[in-house]
């Protein structure tokens, strides 16, 4: 069932992604509400991308980027961390987002004294949720803020790598960092 927190996250994603786009530098090709044509087709939408209903996009976001990868499990512990991981999953892939979270949780566990290291497998489940719970229990509100900065730092670094690896990505690099990193940092927009 689509809960209120997920509706808020999905609505924010759709607003950030905007309507129909078909930029020549975008490897994803035509997109509507941030859903690429390839993803839309895999999800069963066969119509004109410009006419894709927003309800279809909401359902895709929920299935592929919230419940499917287990990111919704993070919401009860930290809606802000859940939203960040979901947003990163949409823009970089759910495995990348989960790996960022798992790596930072491992790095912040004080050599296993606070909670055991996770297997960095890109899958969010019970162990990742337990590690986040233990981290937040040890570190509190400051820990949540620092983890958000850490996750955004990894995301920004990945954007830089994408821009350096494919010059056409430079068309998007500033916007990615402005809307996906700077806007998501604790304290808001730059």
For this entry, give a set of tags.
2 strands, mainly alpha, about 190 residues, Chitosanase, subunit A, domain 1
What does this structure look like?
- The protein is mainly α.
- It has two domains: 1-67, Chitosanase, subunit A, domain 1 (Up-down Bundle), CATH 1.20.141; 70-190, no CATH class.
- The protein is 60% helix and 2% strand.
- The protein is built from seven helices and two strands; from the N terminus they run H-E-E-H-H-H-H-H-H.
- The chain has helices at residues 4-17, 37-42, 54-67, 79-92, 94-107, 126-165, 170-181, and strands at 31-32, 35-36.
- The chain has a two-stranded antiparallel ribbon.
- Strand 1 (31-32) and strand 2 form a beta hairpin.
- Helix 1 (4-17) packs across helix 3, helix 4 packs across helix 6 and helix 5 packs across helix 6 (126-165).
- It is globular, with a radius of gyration of 17 Å.
- 32% of the residues are buried.
- What gyration radius follows from the Cα positions, in whole Å? 17 Å
Number of domains: 2
CA distance, first residue to last residue? 35 Å
- Return the string of H and E elements: HEEHHHHHH
Overall SS class = mainly alpha
Coarse shape: globular
- For the report, how would you describe the main beta sheet? 2 strands, antiparallel
Number of helices in the DSSP assignment: 7
Number of strands: 2
- What is the residue-averaged pLDDT? 90
Percentage of residues assigned to helices: 55-70%
Main β-sheet, spatial strand arrangement = 1-2
Pick out the low-confidence regions. Answer: none
Percent of residues in beta strands:
under 5%
């Amino acid at each position: 069932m689509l809960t209120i927190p997920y509706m808020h996250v999905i609505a924010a994603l759709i607003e950030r992604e905007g309507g129909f786009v078909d930029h020549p530098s975008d490897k994803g090709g035509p997109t509507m509400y941030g859903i690429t044509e390839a993803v839309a087709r895999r999800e069963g939408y066969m119509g004109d991308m410009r006419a894709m209903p927003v309800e279809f996009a909401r359902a895709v976001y929920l299935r592929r980027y919230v419940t499917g990868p287990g990111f919704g499990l993070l919401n009860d512990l930290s809606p802000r961390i859940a939203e960040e991981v979901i947003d990163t999953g949409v823009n970089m892939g759910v495995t990348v987002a989960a790996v960022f979270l798992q790596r930072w949780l491992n790095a912040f566990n004080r050599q296993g004294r606070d909670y055991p290291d996770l297997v960095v497998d890109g899958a969010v489940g019970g162990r990742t949720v337990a590690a986040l719970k233990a981290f937040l229990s040890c570190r509190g509100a400051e820990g949540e803020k620092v983890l958000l900065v850490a996750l955004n730092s990894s995301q920004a670094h990945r954007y830089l790598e994408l821009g350096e690896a494919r010059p056409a990505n430079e068309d998007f690099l500033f916007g990615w960092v402005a809307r996906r990193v700077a806007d998501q940092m604790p304290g808001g927009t730059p």
